[in-house]
Structure formats: structure tokens, C-alpha cells
Amino acid sequence: MSLFSGLSRPMKAAGLALVGVAVIAAVIGGITLTSGGGDTDTATPPGTTPTSAPSSDGATQPSSPAPGSSSASTPPASSAPPSSAPASSAPPSGQPGQTGQPGQPGGDQQASHKWVTVRVYNNSTIQGLAEQAAKDFRASGWNVSEIKGYPGRLPETVAYYRPGTDEEAAAKALALEFGFRAEPRFKEIENIGPGVIVILTKDYKTNDKDGS
Question: Do 167 and 161 touch, CB atoms closer than 8 A?
């Protein structure tokens, strides 16, 4: 018994047409599957950027970079070279002691005591002896503060000082320079003001100090 038996002639014609279309579609589909199997692209894993893609004319074109990736390596920023300028030397804080100032000895041991005041007393009968001696002392840098006579009779020229004070070192330096002795003050001059007291007698030779 035929599939189209019982149908009218027009219906049979339509059914045959549909069967023909189905057969043609099946043939075309089979051909497509057979010829397109080799053209299937290999799936690219997620996150992988293809290196190249063929163009329509067969030439290989570089692929676009993946989103978020840099198309060119960025060179690192160059570091500025360290400054080669040497650090400025700080000036020395300590200054050498100045000659003639208290508590600051200089290279000349005598000069370091010349800030101490010197009192010059004449105990001789020679007029102007104290003035001449004071001139000699000042010419050598000593600080003469007083010139006058001294009564009584002493045997020799001596520079007197108060022990334990700056006068002691100054009196010894002055006596060494001018050729007389240095001794502690005696009772009669203990209460005179500060300073080395030089009491001159006739043995003080002024001409010896200026080289004549």
C-alpha cells in the first residue's frame, strides 16, 4: 500500500515535492560535512593570544595584542646618577690660642704670660730707672700698668708674685728674659693690687736690653 494512497491528486503532488526537497537538502548537507571537515579552526584556549592570522591574500599578519597587555616593552626609567660633588668640609671649630691671653698658652712660653700686668718700682738713686725699665718691658710686649718709687733698701732687682696665681709664671718668665730673680711677695707688698711687682735696684742694666 502506497504512502500517498487515499490522497487526492493535488495532495500527492505536494507530498512528492516535499520529499524531493528533503532529499536534496540531505544531499547538500552531506556534501558540506564532507568538504568542511578540514577547515575547522582549532579552538584557542581562553587567555591565549594567537601569534598570527592569515589575511585574505595569504600573507601572515601580526595578531593584535591581548587586551590589557602592552604592545611594546617599556624601558625602565633611568636613574639619575649620584652626585659626585664632594661634601663641603666643615671649618675647624677650634682656633689656636692667641698669644698674650689668659689661659691660652701660645708657642712662645714667655709671650703667653705677657697679658699679666706689671708694676715697676724704683728702689735705687738712679733717676728715671723705673721709666726706662718700663720702656724695656713694654718694647718686649709686657703690660706695664704702674711706675713709681719704692722706699727702703733692697739688695737686688727682683720680680715678686703671689704664689698660685698667673703672676707666678709671668714673674718667672719676665725675670728669665731680663736677667733677674723671681720670688713670692714679702709681707710689705702682699696687699698691693694684682700684678707682678718688679722692684729695681742699681744692678738693673738698661743698656743690656737694647743691645748697646
Answer: yes
Residue 142 CA to chain centroid, in angstroms? 45
The pLDDT score that the predictor gives to residue 24 is 84
Confidence at residue 108, expressed as pLDDT on a 0 to 100 scale = 57
Angle among Cα 11, 13, 16 to the nearest 5 degrees reads 110
Q: How far apart are CA 178 and CA 156, in angstroms?
A: 13
172: left (phi over 0), alpha (psi -120 to 50) or beta: alpha
Which amino acid, residue 50?
Answer: P
Residue with cell 730673680: 181
What pLDDT does residue 94 have? 37
Coil, strand or helix at 206: helix
Q: Are 172 and 182 in contact (CB under 8 A)?
A: yes
- In this structure, are residues 143 and 117 in contact, taking their beta carbons and an 8 Å threshold? yes
In the sheet where 143-149 sits, what is the strand order? 143-149, 117-122, 196-200, 158-161, 181-184
| For helices 129-139 and 166-178, angle between their N-to-C axes, nearest 10 degrees | 100
Q: Provide the whole-model pTM.
A: 0.48
Total residues found in the chain within this entry: 212
- Three-class DSSP category at 111: helix
Distance CA(84)–CA(196), nearest Å, equals 59
